Amino acid sequence: MGKIAQRYLDVDPWKIIETGFHEKQAVVSESLFSLSNEYMGVRGFFDEGYPKESLIGTYFNGIYEIPKNIQRSHYKGISDKSHYMVNAANAFYTRIFVGDEMFVFNPNNISDYKRELDLKTGEQTRSYQVKDLFKITFKRILNMTTYQVSHQNIKIEPIHYQGQMSIQIGIDFRTKHWGKPGFWDVKAYGNGYALGYTTTNQSLFSRYNLDVNTSYQSQINFKGRLNIETINFNLNKPVIIQKTIVSLIDKKGEKSIDTYLEESSKLLNHASYEKTYQDNQLFYQNYFSENDILIEGDPENQQGIRYCLFQLVNTYLGVSEENNIGAKGLTGEAYSGHAFWDSETYCVPVYLFTNPKAAKNLLMFRYNTLKQAKKRAQELDCKGACYPIATLNGDEACDLWQHASLQFQPSSAVAYAIWHYVKNTKDIDFMLNYGFEMLVEIARFFSSRGQYNQDQTKFGYYGVMGPDEFQMMVNHNAYTNLLAKESMFWMIDVYETYQNQPQIQKVVQNLGLTTSEIEVMKKQCELMYIPYDEKTKIYEQHEGFHDLPHIDIHSIPVTDFPLYAHWSYDRIYRNDMIKQPDVLMFMFLFNQRFDIETKKANYDYYEPKTIHESSLSPSIHSIFASELGYKKQALEFFRFATRMDLDDYNRNTKEGLHLTSIAAAWVNIVYGFGGLRSDGNILKLAPYCPDTWKSYQFNFHYFDSNIRVYVNPKEITLTLDQDLKEPLMIYDKAYHLKKGMTTIHVGN
Ligand code: BGC
């Protein structure tokens, strides 16, 4: 595999624990201890400031910057980095003064450092002792249901120091973006509040109130973009300062200060740390009772998968159609907050089987941004709609032209997700009202971007980049060709099945879809070239892949990772090393179309060449390893996928969590060990228990039933909260499951 774990956290089933301060991992910890609630996200930075490298990051879903002075390319179709998520105000700003001297965190002067994240409440606690003077404890929590509310709790307990102390707390709009000065313009401020605007006129209003358990004098000080309140008190007993913060945003920047003040007052009046703690307890109790994954006999993976479940629900609950899932969620600035094809490919399956409304909302995001995808297709001299490789608002925002212009898997991922969603929910209304229109435009894009070879025997895509981003400008990438063919086919299929429905007729009329256009597509589908060798059963990733110079990936030292930071950019394109599954990716999406020999031949050929530079890679390999009986490898890849961030496998967790691979970890256990297959006409399960586990349990939602699946080496037990409306294939037998428990012996 080439990558190794960098373990420094304690293992616990319900907590993430850092015992002792790990300076080398300080920024990794900032990412790991991030909290979010879809609306906003806060990295686990030090409230009191940290003198070395740190990313003080607070982010709001949908608050982004459009740089004013973009140097537009002279070349048509080359995209510019058009927008990116901005770092917002730090409402946890704190500075501590002992007497007149500012306390600066220094690992040599502190002891008993401990940080914990409680996955049952979303409360983060960090404490340490400063010499033998005093002990300090910071707590932080974001309300999971009243999204605008968060809290900071600071407790100072005297040991040998008794005397004057000051704590500055405030709202800091000076936060940096990618290390450069931020853009916030603070237009209004007052006691305990500040209102800032981005250059694109989106606004953020931050306001707090305080509850202090001792008498104190307070002094307010406005320093431009920093709004500080200094609290002076005498430390002669434990002092607790509770700060309740309300953060309100307006994406259009139209809300007046009075409206903000009124709205925030209402929220502040009803908020308290204790209330949020209780709200969250209930929230996580409900969440885990429906979604928990239990692993008996493997504490590290148990912690890993729970952490994934926790961060998953922190990032996206399906609250709004306007939100999507950034590759780093709301935990860092890498990838600029952008959503990728990851949402449809790795996240939709999770939500489809845990929270179908959220899956639909992710698709609605694409429907609502169809207009921009059509514009992008035009920029690329094509018809129809080309969905962006990276986006927050629907526009293409990737400034690497080779990705933005050559990768089409976002478009086919949208088509796949529509097909996959409707297949598993029978939400025909969605297909008629929204899905079909997207399919028509995506099919048109693929029809117009594809080309025939000179003797007109092969149709396909020249000059593309498939999911494996280590191969650029290739011809006949098997993934791209196959997915394009399917996308066109799905559109034709829906058209032919539902052409008498008024919604379909309306779309056909509005978009001017003609039968001759459909005939052209049918011919293209028929001649779509998928490079394949019948003798070896191997699909060639793209024409010419087999001849590329070979590199032994195990010869690459671990210090070279991530490769993008250590190898010259062109060097990674010149050999047969693979970043992430490409052939295996389409075999995953259409798993049931390929026989086991074909899957084995391709896995055995491609896996040894794969470096997993993309965090999305290990989970797919684990699923295949399970299916092929490579059980040890399946577990190794699962650990890699599940503890990707906790153990910093890819050495870049400090930039933010790999949120979409966190979704892939769910897919890993459910499709891998659980054997779920959702690409056929009947949903299938074929669970097995990894050799070193005693048992495991997962849940999924299907046609209004919640299904709990418990697996041990001998049997599986399914517990349903109501009769299942659809049949379910378990191993090779179809079951009509009823409410209650059904036990099946493994192998029967
Ligand atoms: C992967 C892409 C992915 C992106 C965001 C890249 O490293 O190669 O497939 O969409 O990360 O997760």
Using brief descriptors, characterize the structure shown.
748 residues, alpha+beta, Beta-galactosidase, Chain A, domain 5, Glycosyltransferase, nine-stranded antiparallel beta sheet, five-stranded antiparallel beta sheet, 32% helix, globular, binds beta-D-glucopyranose, Glyco_hydro_65_N, carbohydrate binding, hydrolase, hydrolase activity, hydrolyzing O-glycosyl compounds, Glyco_hydro_65_C
Topology:
Blueprint: E1 15-19, H1 26-32, E2 35-36, E3 40-42, E4 58-60, E5 64-65, E6 84-85, E7 90-98, E8 101-102, E9 110-118, E10 123-130, E11 134-142, E12 149-158, E13 163-172, E14 185-190, E15 193-197, E16 203-212, E17 217-223, E18 226-235, E19 239-250, H2 257-270, H3 273-291, E20 294-296, H4 299-315, H5 342-352, H6 356-368, H7 370-379, H8 401-404, H9 409-425, H10 428-449, E21 451-452, E22 459-460, H11 478-498, H12 502-511, H13 515-526, E23 532-533, E24 538-539, H14 563-566, H15 583-589, H16 596-606, H17 617-627, H18 631-642, H19 659-673, E25 683-685, E26 695-702, E27 705-711, E28 715-720, E29 728-730, E30 733-735, E31 740-745
Parallel strand pairs: 25-29
Antiparallel strand pairs: 1-9, 2-3, 3-4, 5-6, 7-8, 7-13, 9-10, 10-11, 11-12, 12-19, 13-18, 14-15, 15-16, 16-19, 17-18, 20-26, 21-22, 23-24, 26-27, 27-28, 28-31, 29-30
